[in-house]
Each structure stands twice: as structure tokens, then as C-alpha cells.
Amino acid sequence: MVLRPMFLYLSKNKVLNRSAKRWGLRMGAKQIVAGVTIDDAMTAVKKLNEFGLVATVDHLGEFITSKEEAIESTTYCIKTLEAIADTGVTCNLSLKLTQLGLDVERELCYENMRKIVGRAAELGNFVRIDMEDFAHCQQTLDILSTLRREFPRSVGTVIQAYLYRAKQDIYDLKGVNLRLVKGAYKESPQVAIQSKKQIDENYLSIIKQHLKSGSYTAIATHDHVIIQKVKAFCRVEKIPRSQFEFQMLYGFRKELQEKIAAEGYTMRIYVPYGTDWYGYFMRRLAERPQNVSFALRGLLSK
Ligand code: FDA
């Protein structure tokens, strides 16, 4: 598939990324990005809650290269947690460590993260650290481990099934609230499985492994086949519904999202918002080139 590498390449283009911040939500991004302000995000989450869906919000941010930008991003995350508390919506926070300065200075990133998770703990909320590319994986797990000593219930992360290390990570992270995904970045054959069939097999295998260990598991996928298999596994193994949730991205498979919620499962929607939407949008096009129709429709309507 030629489109996937092309969109992943475009997602890393800093010039386009910077320009897109000035464009407003374009190219159909409105369908999968909830808006640009915290209020936009809260309005979207309220609507989802009315349909029986819970949410996690992500203030989009890419290519943070200065201390000031990382601190600004931290302040924004804290404001978002406070807006969640003020509006009373059912929602937690997702973020990326590079947004908080991981590539600028590790210690700065850790201190920023500590402030955010500390505020989440005070407000009785939870912070999910999204997993970025392989180059950031070990640092992310190290920061998680330090944070968990202080805030054991207020922070978790994501494990990507395409990585060879996933099985061992799941073993090491027994008891941690994890989101499990197939993996969204382009990784080399040295570190990641390349065949889609094998990634799907490994995905199901790590989901079962984490569920069987009694750990809280967020199964984040739009793949109805995997979702069916997980439901069947949980029925047979008598895994209570309070021990897992399904997650999907805002704007994707809305009917399926509502159906799963109506069946009595927790269905959490990942709601991205902010002016820095370009990289996120390109990664979604890379995952599913059919989404290009979003972009074409969006371009034609502008
Ligand atoms: P995949 O794309 O493998 O599709 C499998 C099948 O599902 C398709 O063949 C089709 O039948 C069906 N399908 C999928 N999408 C559909 C659609 N829109 N409409 C109709 N049918 C569809 N990645 C990462 O590296 N780090 C992270 O932190 C996260 N976080 C994250 C959070 C959440 C909530 C989600 C849902 C995903 C992520 N991801 C992620 C992305 C993840 O790694 C993965 O790239 C995408 O979810 C795409 O894989 P899927 O499992 O959804 O299905």
C-alpha cells in the first residue's frame, strides 16, 4: 500500500504542520477533530455522554522544541482537567510526553507530567500517556514507573501489539491500567512485526494476557472482528465488564460505538482538539486510506 508511507511521511512535515495551525480545521479534519478550544472539546464530550459514551480528551500538540512550549502545553493539560471537573462530564485526559518536552529535556518532561498527574489525582481523574514511536517507548515506560510510585491509580499508558517487546511489557506491567492498540507508527522490522495478520494475532494475544492477569484493560480498536473475539473471551473466562472498556476515535464507526455502549459495555471515545491537528489527521489517513474521502469532501466544501 503506497498511501500509508506517504501519509506517515506527510505527518512529519514541520512546514505543513506549522501552516495548518493557521488554516483552522481544514481538509475534512472537522469530522475527526472536535474543535480548537477547550470549550469545543467539552461540548463534544457532553454530546457523547448523552449517547451513553464516555471520553478521553487530547489537546493536540506536535514538534514541541522549547521549554516554553512544553510548559504552555502542561498548563493547557491542567486547564483541561479543571474544565472536565467544572463541567461534570465523564471524561479523562490523554497526552503525549513529547508535548511536555520529552525531546527537550527529560527532567522537565517528568516535572510537567508530575504536575498534571498530581492535579488529576486531586480531582479524582486519570491520565493516559499515549505511546509514540519506538524511539520514545522505553523513556515513556520509565517515566510511567516513577509516576506510579507516587500516583498508583491516576496514570497509565499504551502498549502497541506490533512491537516484539509487547508481550514482555504486558508481563512487567501486570496490574497497570493499559490501553492496548495495534500501533500507528512506521517501525523497522528490527523492532516491530510487519505482517498485518501477525499483528492482529499478537494484539488478541496481549489483550487476553492482560485481562487474564486481572488488570484493567482498554481495548482500543475499530476492528469489529477483534471486538467480537474479546467479548466472547470475556464471557467464557467470566471477566467482569468493570475490568475492561472499549475505545474508539472520535468520528469513526459512530454506529458501532453506540451499539457497544447500548449492550452495556464501557465505550470510551478519544476526542482530539486544538489547532495542531495536522499530524494527527495525516496519521489517521495513513491507517485507513478510505479516510481520504473525508479529506476530499472537506476540500470540496471549503
Ligand atoms: P485496522 O485499521 O487494523 O482495521 C481492521 C479492520 O477493522 C478493517 O479491515 C475494517 O474491517 C475495520 N475498520 C477499521 N476502521 C474502520 C472504519 N473507520 N470504518 C469501518 N471499518 C473499519 N496507536 C499508537 O501507536 N499509540 C497510541 O497511543 C494510540 N492510541 C489510540 C487510541 C485509540 C482510542 C484508538 C482507537 C487507537 C489508538 N492508536 C494508537 C491507533 C492504533 O494503534 C491503530 O493504528 C488504529 O486504531 C488502527 O487500527 P484498528 O485496530 O482500529 O483497525
TrEMBL record:
Chain sites annotated for binding substrate: K96, R283, R284
Task: Name the cofactor(s).
Answer: FAD
InterPro entries hit by this protein:
FAD-linked_oxidoreductase-like, PRODH_bac_arc, Proline_DH_dom, Proline_oxidase
E.C. designation(s): 1.5.5.2
Query: According to its UniProt record, what is one Pfam family this protein matches?
Result: Pro_dh
Q: Which reaction does it catalyse?
A: L-proline + a quinone = (S)-1-pyrroline-5-carboxylate + a quinol + H(+)
Paste the cofactor note.
Answer: Binds 1 FAD per subunit.
Which pathway does this polypeptide act in? Answer: Amino-acid degradation; L-proline degradation into L-glutamate; L-glutamate from L-proline: step 1/2
The molecular function terms of the Gene Ontology recorded here are: nucleotide binding; proline dehydrogenase activity
Entry annotated with the keyword Manganese = no
Give the Proline dehydrogenase domain ranges. 42-294
Query: What residue ranges carry the coiled-coil annotation?
Result: none
Q: What are the binding positions for FAD in this chain?
A: M131, Q160, K182, G183, A184, K196, T221, H222
Query: SUPFAM superfamilies under this entry?
Result: FAD-linked oxidoreductase
A biological process (GO) of this protein is: L-proline catabolic process to L-glutamate
Which UniProt keywords are given for this protein, alphabetically ordered? FAD, Flavoprotein, Nucleotide-binding, Oxidoreductase, Proline metabolism
Does the record's keyword annotation contain Nucleotide-binding? yes
Q: Which Gene3D superfamilies is this protein grouped with?
A: 3.20.20.220
This chain belongs to the protein called proline dehydrogenase
